[in-house]
């Protein structure tokens, strides 16, 4: 064991810890001994970390070698923390008193006063935060990122006095999702410089604000900090473009990680977690994020115990909740009520990682920043919209999870409805989370209730290996197709066709926007028999190979006039030579940033379930029976008739 506490400032707690030979709990890396992992780890780089956890010498080397890049990150992080503080001082538009558009419409004066209050905050944030521009660069991922940032940031740093750390507690830390997705995403944010990090250079510069990040894991397993570190070490990797010093970054990240065995009473467990967090955070201000990655049945107990026992009193608290968000209107109401009893709406971040995909963010960028599409985005020009999430046999998500929840609760209710909301909503006033959520909920409330005649539900044939049984005891629906209508002036009569399925022949995730035929087309005689094929189409493809495609008609070269339908193709991997961050990474970054536009607000959750209500009832009464389909096939035959009824020939298979 090596200690390097001598030259660094210490709180009384830290002094005690450092002095005590018997002190077992490691606290912040700069104050205490490094423990050596006591479990073997499986991957090569993790073994290297095991070897390298050897104390002071390493620490000095590490600091010498990465000091420059750390300085850069510290500056970034100072901005980010400043921005977070500002965000949480914004008017709470998620408060039901402010959020309902109909109330806003009735009370123009209130709207003006609310919006001016919000926009003045917004203006302040935009002025004070070059981070905004920086984030744009990060999302594009160009190598200009750091130089741009360095050029713009120095004049705008201000500290608001109090040093503040950020603690992220993963509740359910030993679970499948935490290991496979959450910790790796946190690590990626850490090594990319998006988590605040303490560095001695702060002290050298005598800067009073100390920023730091701590990661906590919580479950009921009787393991130690080092056990958790060993488990997590085997799951961490650096992206191809971030390989430099990967082992050191892992090691530094793992040293910030602590485990708390909460035992079988979460009330007691959360108090213990709080005490442990306070120990580690020291006397600083402390913002906390709690990621609830626990089984649905444990969610309410965990949330309520946490609310009472583990929230920071010295900063903000944000709670991330995993999907599914209930299984129908009633259960989601119950969950929402129990959450809102203990938390404010603006503390809640309901995460659906599929919404963190680049394609989803691109959807609104494409819509609202291209004049070429804006005038066409309505029933006069758009004939139908297709939202497709078709998965083949190579699923990475574990069977246990897939078999627990059917695709309706897991994918349709959140991912598909949110995609439609973003695609079809009116333009929000700003990109602020609550502005976007206001427009999404208005759209969701305009979707006509879905009748079972407009729906095909399917189940993989048992003979082909799907043993899934939903929580209800019924077979888990693995396929869902439907035609939705939005009853508003923009979309009246336009079918929105959904198709979600697992175990299908193709793996394809895309949004297709098909335009009407050209009225009075003078080239009609030069098109083949299938005039549908000549409709213009805009396709946002996520899988395979992210791309934006526009189908246009062009002349085939040569004598005579023969038309061909061709695709203008922006293939991302050709244009941008970067590894796209995982969607969990993207969304965790948003939570840290206080940006909630991709997280469903309680009223959005309820509105989406409301649309699905008649179908769920029919399924419940067995009036709607899932059709069996063959694994590796095209899904239920009747789906084809559903498309045909709405004049659509599916193009994806
Ligand atoms: N796995 C996936 O791919 C996805 C999962 N999700 C959602 O994420 C959540 C977690 O899923 P997953 O990781 O697969 O589940 P797991 O069952 O693998 O893990 C659950 C975790 O929660 C802990 N836990 C269980 N019961 C309690 C309790 N009463 N109090 C405190 N901790 C408890 C478990 O540890 P211990 O028993 O030791 O306490 C374990 O660490 C679920 O809500 C799921 O719906 C969402 C999308 C995808
Ligand atoms: O939540 C889900 O996501 C996975 C896709 O996750 P990814 O990390 O592989 O993009 C999907 O396969 C699954 O059906 C769905 O439940």
Please provide a written account of the structure:
- The model is unreliable at 1-160, 199-210 and 463-471 (pLDDT under 50).
- The protein starts with 11 loop residues before the first helix and ends in an 8-residue tail after the last helix.
- The chain has helices spanning 12-19, 44-52, 56-88, 96-99, 101-106, 108-128, 131-140, 145-153, 176-191, 200-204, 225-233, 246-255, 266-281, 296-309, 329-342, 358-368, 399-404, 407-424, 433-446, 572-575, 583-593, 602-620, 638-645; strands at 164-171, 213-219, 257-261, 285-292, 317-322, 348-351, 382-390, 455-460, 479-484, 496-501, 508-515, 537-543, 547-555, 563-571, 627-629.
- Among the domains are: 90-149, no CATH class; 355-522 and 597-645, Dihydrodipicolinate Reductase, domain 2 (2-Layer Sandwich).
- It is of the alpha/beta class and 653 residues long.
- A 9-stranded mixed sheet has the order 14-13-12-11-7-10-9-8-15, with helices on both faces. It has a 6-stranded parallel sheet with strand order 3-2-1-4-5-6, sandwiched between helices.
- Helix 9 packs across helix 21 (583-593) and helix 18 (407-424) packs across helix 19.
- Helix content is 42%, strand content 15%.
- Strand 12 (537-543) and strand 13 form a beta hairpin.
- The chain contains 23 helices and 15 strands.
- NADPH dihydro-nicotinamide-adenine-dinucleotide phosphate (NDP) is lined by residues 172-178, 219-221, 262, 266, 293-296, 298, 302, 322-323, 397-398, 401.
- Belongs to the glucose-6-phosphate dehydrogenase family.
- Keywords: Carbohydrate metabolism, Glucose metabolism, NADP, Oxidoreductase.
- Residues 70-97, 114-133 are annotated as: Disordered.
- Pathway: Carbohydrate degradation; pentose phosphate pathway; D-ribulose 5-phosphate from D-glucose 6-phosphate (oxidative stage): step 1/3.
- It comes from Buddleja alternifolia.
């Amino acid at each position: 064991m090596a200690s390097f506490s001598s030259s660094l400032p210490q709180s009384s707690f830290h002094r005690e810890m450092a002095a005590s030979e018997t002190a077992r709990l490691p606290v912040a890396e700069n104050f205490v001994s490094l423990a050596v992992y006591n479990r073997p780890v499986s991957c090569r780089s993790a073994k290297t970390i095991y070897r390298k956890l050897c104390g002071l010498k390493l620490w000095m080397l590490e600091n010498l070698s990465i000091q420059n890049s750390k300085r850069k990150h510290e500056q970034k992080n100072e901005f980010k923390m400043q921005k977070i503080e500002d965000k949480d001082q914004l008017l709470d538009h998620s408060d039901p008193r402010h959020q309902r558009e109909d109330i806003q419409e009735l009370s123009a004066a209130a709207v003006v006063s609310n919006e001016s209050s919000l926009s003045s905050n917004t203006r302040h944030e935009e002025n004070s935060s070059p981070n905004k521009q920086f984030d744009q660069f990060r999302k594009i991922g160009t190598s200009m990122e750091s130089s741009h940032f360095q050029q713009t940031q120095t004049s705008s740093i201000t500290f608001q006095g109090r040093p503040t750390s950020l603690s992220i507690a993963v509740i359910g830390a030993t679970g499948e999702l935490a290991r496979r997705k959450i910790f790796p995403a946190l690590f990626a944010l850490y090594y990319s410089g998006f988590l605040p990090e303490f560095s001695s250079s702060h002290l050298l510069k005598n800067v009073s604000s100390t920023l730091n990040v701590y990661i906590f894991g919580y479950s009921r397993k009787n393991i130690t900090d080092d056990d958790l570190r060993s488990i997590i070490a085997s799951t961490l990797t650096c992206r191809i473009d971030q390989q430099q010093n990967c082992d050191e970054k892992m090691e530094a990240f793992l040293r910030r990680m602590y485990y708390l065995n909460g035992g079988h009473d979460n009330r007691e467990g959360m108090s213990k977690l709080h005490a442990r967090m306070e120990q580690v955070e020291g006397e600083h201000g402390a913002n906390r994020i709690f990621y609830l990655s626990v089984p649905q049945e444990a969610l309410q107990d965990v949330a309520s115990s946490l609310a009472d026992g583990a929230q920071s009193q010295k900063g903000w608290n944000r709670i991330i909740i995993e999907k599914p968000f209930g299984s129908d209107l009633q259960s989601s109401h119950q969950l929402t009520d129990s959450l809102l009893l203990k938390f404010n709406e603006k503390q809640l971040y309901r995460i659906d990682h599929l919404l963190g995909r680049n394609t989803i963010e691109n959807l609104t960028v494409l819509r609202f920043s291209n004049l070429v599409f804006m005038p066409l985005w309505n029933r006069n020009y758009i004939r139908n919209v297709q939202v497709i999430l078709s998965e083949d046999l190579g699923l990475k998500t574990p069977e246990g999870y897939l078999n627990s929840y059917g695709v309706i609760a897991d994918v349709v209710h959140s991912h598909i409805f949110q995609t439609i909301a973003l695609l079809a909503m009116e333009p929000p006033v700003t990109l602020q989370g609550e502005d976007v959520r206001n427009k999404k909920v208005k759209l969701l409330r305009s979707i006509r209730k879905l009748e079972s005649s407009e729906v095909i539900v399917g189940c993989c044939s048992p003979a082909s290996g799907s043993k899934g049984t939903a929580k209800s005891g019924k077979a888990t629906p693995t396929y869902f197709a439907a035609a939705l209508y939005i009853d508003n002036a923009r979309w009246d009569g336009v079918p929105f066709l959904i198709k979600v399925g697992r175990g299908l022949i193709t793996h394809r995730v895309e949004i297709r926007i098909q335009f009407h035929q050209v009225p009075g087309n003078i080239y009609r005689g030069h098109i083949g028999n299938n005039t549908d094929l000549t409709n213009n189409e805009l396709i946002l493809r996520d899988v395979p190979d992210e791309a934006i495609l526009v189908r246009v008609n062009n002349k085939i070269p040569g004598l005579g006039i023969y038309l061909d339908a061709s695709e203008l193709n922006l293939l991302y991997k050709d244009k941008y030579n970067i590894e796209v961050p995982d969607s969990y990474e993207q969304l965790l970054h948003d939570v840290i940033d206080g940006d909630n536009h991709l997280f469903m607000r309680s009223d959005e959750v309820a509105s989406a379930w409301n649309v699905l209500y008649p179908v769920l009832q029919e399924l419940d009464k067995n009036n709607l029976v899932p059709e069996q389909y063959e694994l590796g096939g095209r899904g239920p035959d009747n789906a084809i008739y559903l498309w045909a009824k709405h004049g659509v020939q599916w193009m994806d298979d």
